[in-house]
Design goal:
The complex is a heterodimer of chains A (about 160) and B (about 450). In chain A, about 50% of the residues lie in helices and about 15% in strands. Chain A is an alpha+beta fold and about 160 residues long. Chain A has one domain (about 1-160): OmpA-like domain (60s Ribosomal Protein L30, Chain: A, 2-Layer Sandwich), CATH 3.30.1330. In chain A, strands 1-4-2-3 form a four-stranded mixed sheet. In chain A, helix 4 (about 100-120) links the parallel strand 2 (about 90-95) and strand 3 (about 130-135). In chain A, helix 3 (about 70-80) packs across helix 4 (about 100-120). Chain A is globular, with a radius of gyration of 15 Å. Residues about 1-35 of chain A have low confidence and may be disordered. Chain B folds into two domains: about 5-175, 3-Layer(aba) Sandwich (Rossmann fold), CATH 3.40.50.10070; about 180-450, 6 Propeller (Neuraminidase). With about 450 residues, chain B is mainly beta. Chain B is elongated and about 70 Å long. In chain B, strands 1, 2, 3, 4, 5, 6, 7 and 8 form an eight-stranded mixed sheet that branches. In chain B, helix 2 (about 65-85) packs across helix 5. The chains are: A alpha+beta (about 160), B mainly beta (about 450). At the A-B interface, helix 4 of A face strand 24 and strand 28 of B. Chain B: InterPro entries: 6-blade_b-propeller_TolB-like, TAT_signal, Tol-Pal_TolB, TolB_N, WD40.
């Protein structure tokens, strides 16, 4: 019961966080664009972040794609089909509440899970590389549940 | 200083010099009453009163030799104190001078201080040649327990101090010491999301610190070869995380094996002829052993799940590893050929980073549960679990070569969203669960690996 409740509240929290971190990213990239004035080149990382979503989040110690995250990967697959020249690396990450070696393997399994959805969505496997950074490259730098939920992620990065 | 050649000849007449470490020769010092019996303190009990010992500065003719004698004695004092098993007596209380004690200890002067043992010594410096005469005295029977002369170049003085510390440890505790050892680890600096991680190496007391990699790429999880000439580690060179070998004599690095994907968590076999590691193929991480001569690999596990952090037993017959095949991370033991897999951890929480004691009697691990991390030990069949230290985050235990002390790393949480307050430091602790001490490092420090005894 209490586990289910925690999971539910976590899912709600991360749902919010997805929106949050995407807007932040979009704001940052828009401001940093050389041309300015919201000029986003199709097929760029900025395009992926602003219009598709570059990342999915995972439950603690899990690498299965959550139902609430799957649509992001489906959108990424369509986006990659529209931008046929784009090649990506999927980076898998873990939160700080695990041991380094296990988290390296876990991050790789998360990256693989995300890649598998992209491939199932019609993207050629040769266009996707994967890498794991385990717990060693956190996005959120705090030591709390919110930060950990943001760090359990697979991020698609245009090469 | 006056007639070192004659001194050396006199000693060589009585016994041949022995090479105890690269560039360090030892010869026994004759004594009228060199004891074969004498005091040996039993430390097999969980916790004992530390042994009171007097370690005055070593005597020397001239200021350079005296300074060297002082430095050597202070390294010995620091080693013995940090073990938690000795209580070096404050030198302010000493009655007899180092020079007089080196000539002939006046036992009454040391007995009144409560000392059970006394060391004396004499340092001779001649150019870059160093000679250290060291004696250990048993105070109650008033006899010499050890006497050795060490000859080396002066730059090796710290190592001589560590060798003498190990001599004292072994003579008084009846088991090998661990002071003449080094520790490889990962030095971490910079903000948490853009850390620089470099391999570094230092003496076990934190001295002689040196970086092995320049930080251009991330380096993780160094592990010593059993003869301490090379290190296996994980590198992100070319953004391809792989296990590499690092030759400490030449500085040469080479990738190990060709697995076509990430390899991680390497450890050498006890005979040094192979490396056991984890490789990711498909969605699972499996354990492989790579023969170093032929570079041929053999797969040992193929269950669904993540099998990581394998470690051989000291006899090379068994392997302990970490797997989530049963749903969450637990410890498993299997035969060296991959057969006979059985789970050994059954307590509350997830278990990780198992490492087998060089004595063979214990497996140290990280346990994660109820929001806390802990370092503990259990017998290889999983019985007798004991937690040694607990906190917000700690992991990656490594045994001293005598199996009596562990190092691991401990982290403190970030206080704010910018990561302020986060730190990672190496600690050492006695396997009885007392005497936890932070090892001083220039930056944040993780992934310690303790070398074998170097002498």
């Amino acid at each position: 019961m209490s586990t289910a409740k925690t999971l539910l509240s976590l899912m709600a929290a991360t749902g919010l966080l997805v929106a949050c971190s995407n807007t932040e990213q979009a704001a940052v990239t828009a401001g940093a664009g050389a041309g300015g004035a919201g000029q986003i080149r199709p097929g760029s990382q900025e395009d992926l972040v602003a219009n598709v979503g570059d990342r999915v989040f995972f439950d603690t110690d899990r690498s299965t794609i959550r139902a609430d995250q799957r649509t992001v990967l489906d959108r990424q697959a369509s986006w990659m089909q529209q931008n046929a020249a784009v090649q990506v690396t999927v980076e898998g990450h873990a939160d700080e509440r695990g041991t380094r070696e296990y988290n390296l393997a876990l991050g790789q399994r998360r990256a693989n899970s995300a890649r598998d959805v992209l491939v199932a969505g019609g993207v050629a496997p040769a266009r996707i590389q994967t890498i794991s950074y385990g717990k060693d490259r956190p996005e959120a730098l705090g030591s709390n549940e919110d930060a950990w939920a943001q760090n359990r992620r697979a991020v698609t990065v245009v090469r | 200083m006056k007639t070192p050649a004659i001194h050396r000849r006199a000693l060589f007449a009585s016994a041949a010099a022995t090479l105890v470490a690269p560039g360090i020769w030892s010869t026994p010092l004759p004594a009228a009453a060199q004891g074969t019996g004498g005091t040996v303190i039993d430390i097999t009990r969980a916790r004992t009163e530390p042994i009171p010992i007097a370690v005055p500065d070593m005597a020397g003719a001239g200021p350079d030799a005296q300074r060297m004698g002082q430095n050597i004695a202070r390294v010995i004092v620091n080693n013995l104190r940090s073990s938690g098993l000795f209580r070096p007596i404050e030198r302010a209380a000493f009655i007899q001078t180092p020079e007089a004690a080196a000539q002939a200890p006046r036992f009454q002067d040391w007995r009144v201080l409560g000392a059970v043992a006394l060391t004396t010594g004499r340092v001779e410096l001649s150019g870059d040649r160093l000679r250290v005469e060291f004696r250990l005295w048993d105070i109650l029977p008033e006899q010499q327990a050890l006497g050795t002369a060490y000859n080396a170049t002066a730059s090796n003085w710290r190592q001589i101090a560590h060798i003498i510390s190990d001599d004292i440890y072994k003579r008084l505790l009846g088991e090998d010491g661990y002071f003449n050892t080094r520790v490889a680890y990962v030095s971490e600096s910079g903000p948490r999301d853009r850390r620089t991680r470099r391999l570094a190496i230092m003496d076990q007391d934190g001295e002689n610190h040196r970086f092995l990699t320049d930080g251009q790429f991330q380096a993780l999880t160094p592990r010593f070869h059993p003869n301490a000439t090379q290190i296996a580690f994980m590198s992100y060179l070319r953004n391809e995380p792989r296990v590499y070998l690092f030759n400490l004599q030449t500085g040469r690095q080479e990738v190990l094996g060709n697995f076509g994907g990430m390899t991680l968590s390497p450890r050498f076999s006890p005979d040094g002829r192979s490396v056991i590691l984890s490789a990711i193929r498909g969605g699972d991480a499996s354990i492989f052993v790579v023969d170093l001569a032929s570079r041929r690999e053999r797969q040992l596990t193929n269950a669904a799940g993540l099998d990581v952090s394998p470690c051989f037993s000291p006899d090379g017959q068994q392997i302990v590893f970490n797997s989530d095949r049963g749903g969450d991370q637990q410890l498993y033991v299997m035969d060296a050929n991959g057969g006979g897999v059985r789970r050994i951890s059954f307590g509350n929480g997830r278990y990780a980073t198992p490492v087998w004691s060089p004595r063979g009697d214990l497996i140290a691990f990280t346990r994660i549960g109820r929001g806390q991390f802990a370092i503990g030990v259990m017998r290889p069949d999983g019985s007798g679990e004991r937690i040694l230290s607990e906190g917000w985050s700690m992991e990656s235990p490594t045994f001293a070569p005598n199996g009596r002390v562990l190092m691991f790393y401990r982290e403190t949480p970030a206080r704010d969203a910018r990561g302020a307050g986060f730190s990672a430091r190496i600690s050492s602790i006695d396997i009885a669960g007392f005497n936890e001490r932070q090892v001083v490092t220039p930056n944040d420090a993780t992934d310690p690996s303790w070398s074998p005894l170097l002498s």
